[in-house]
Amino acid sequence: MPRPQAKVRNPAPQPATRIPTMSTEKLDEAARLKAAYERNEFLNLHEIVAKARQNLNQNAWDYIVGGVETETTLRRNRMALDTVAFRPRVLRDVSKVDASTELLGRKLRLPIVLCPVGTLESFHPEGAAPVVKAAGEFGIAHMLSSVCDPGLEGVAQAAPDAFRMFQLYVRGDAAWVDDHVARAIANKYSVFCLTVDTAHYSRRERDIAKRHITGGRRRASGREFQEALDWKTVERIKSKFKIPLAIKGIATAEDAKLCLDHGVDFVFVSNHGGRQLDHGRGSTDVLPEVVEAVAGRAKIIVDGGFYRGSDIVKAKAIGADLIGLGRMQCYGLAAGGQAGIVRMLELLEDEVIRSMGLLGATSFAKLDSSMLHVAAATNVPGVFSAFPHLEIAPYRY
Questions:
Q1: Is 272 a catalytic site residue?
Q2: Which pLDDT does position 180 carry in this prediction?
């Protein structure tokens, strides 16, 4: 079957194999856009998404954009963000805006972590290696999935100086888990993460309708260990190992408080991008109650539908420390490898800085919930609703 082509209004020229990074030279707006055009760069985030669609077959594409069953949770992730409006303050000197942050003693250019995504080799033959290299080049955090090549040691070798975290799906007994923690420490990962929202594998109907079995599902063994996972594993890791621990998949204040009771260092608000439990809440709806429950006693990471710079600013104003990008990293990787991810981050940074400046905030420390307001959404929520100038041809399942 021929691949459907992404339709983009006024498409920009497609990028070269290596996409040069944005110049730091201060140019006026017209000159900067002209220079980017001449360097054959993506000029908007939707152009990166469109190029990714052109490069991928339907199975790989559905792995990025799909959700579980009715895909209600996936759409609610966007609805939750789109119902947050800004309350800007004016007549403040915003000639210099700093979008960086510090975490565990390291400075990050943006408060972003590239989330754990399994089977990245579906989008690039080198899997997670170009992703962690892009994170190191740009200066943000990366979290490796335990079901992604080239694996724990391979990713450490690919970018030894990057801010690296490791995420584990539990597929073995206590000794098996402890071995992964010890290996993460030995390879200088800064954070160890347990994913806890995958006790049962979800029904992803795009794949079922095509009779397609993903690489990750084909090689998933020992699922009974994930099903039996409980707080005892958290207690054991905290008692045996000296590495900051994150728990990914928190969706209630009650479980956030249990994280604190067990000494968890990073509470990771996530619904797996709408790919696990259907009819869940959007992550941005969950975030305020978790921020209140944690009350500064742990760091908070959030993911779920974050595609634009304004989304990142909203999450920071609510109280998140790091914002996770899952689908956006896949789009960048499929569009242009390491350089595609770096360019995606450059465009996000530009959007973040403009949003902060127009809000009247010169740093994230100047943001708070007083700059936010509940409002009606204006777009029909969906995986592409953050990109109104993008049109993807539908696929008939």
A1: yes
A2: 98
